[in-house]
């Protein structure tokens, strides 16, 4: 069974992320998400021998709640900025130093950043110690880095020890 379904939490995460990305909860999309949830962890297991080990499971719920709330607020902020004067926008890139060492945690962080409107993960350094993030409105790079680390990386370190 472990060979067929290497990681149930990862399969569930793929299904949920698929449904969030397509924003359609029809039976067809649920079926596609379920198929992806079965296939992607299995294929990833063949490519990357490092397995996802989960730490505090309550942190998963805390992180999920935090990300959903941040997505809502970011959507409002991005809409407000787009409708405002263009000169008020200050896009830019910032390197986020990572304390996360687990590739699954780093991948989750990059995905969360990309799912949150106004930010996009652009590049992971070859040594996996820095993540390049593009911000739609970057006023204070230090504050942006501190916010990413405090809001997401701390919980991800608990989830992926």
Concise summary:
With about 160 residues, the protein is mainly alpha-helical. The chain has helices at about 10-20, 25-45, 55-85, 105-115, 140-160; strands spanning about 90-95, 120-125, 130-135. The chain has 2 domains: about 10-45, no CATH class; about 55-160, no CATH class.
Detailed description of the structure:
There is one protein chain. The chain is mostly helical. The protein has helices at residues 8-22, 27-47, 57-83, 103-115, 141-159; strands at 92-97, 119-124, 130-135. Strand 2 and strand 3 (130-135) form a beta hairpin. Helix 1 packs across helix 2 (27-47), helix 3 packs antiparallel against helix 5 (141-159) and helix 4 (103-115) crosses helix 5. The mean pLDDT is 87.
What's the SSE blueprint?
Layout: H1 8-22, H2 27-47, H3 57-83, E1 92-97, H4 103-115, E2 119-124, E3 130-135, H5 141-159
Antiparallel strand pairs: 1-3, 2-3
Keywords: Cell membrane, Membrane, Transmembrane, Transmembrane helix
Membrane topology: Multi-pass membrane protein
Pfam family, one: MNHE
């Amino acid at each position: 069974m472990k060979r067929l379904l290497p990681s149930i939490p990862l399969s569930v995460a793929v299904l949920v992320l698929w449904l969030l990305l397509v924003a359609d909860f029809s039976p067809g999309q649920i079926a596609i998400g379920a198929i992806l949830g079965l296939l992607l962890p299995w294929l990833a297991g063949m490519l990357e021998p490092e397995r996802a080990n989960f730490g505090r499971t309550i942190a998963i719920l805390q992180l999920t709640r935090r990300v959903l709330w941040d997505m809502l607020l970011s959507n409002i902020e991005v809409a407000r900025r787009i409708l405002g004067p263009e000169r008020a926008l200050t896009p830019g890139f910032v390197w986020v130093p990572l304390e996360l060492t687990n590739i699954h945690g780093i991948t989750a962080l990059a995905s969360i950043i990309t799912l949150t409107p106004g930010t996009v993960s652009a590049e992971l350094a070859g040594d996996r110690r820095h993540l390049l993030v593009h911000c739609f409105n970057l006023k204070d790079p230090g504050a942006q880095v501190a916010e990413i680390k405090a809001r997401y990386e701390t919980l991800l370190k608990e989830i992926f020890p």
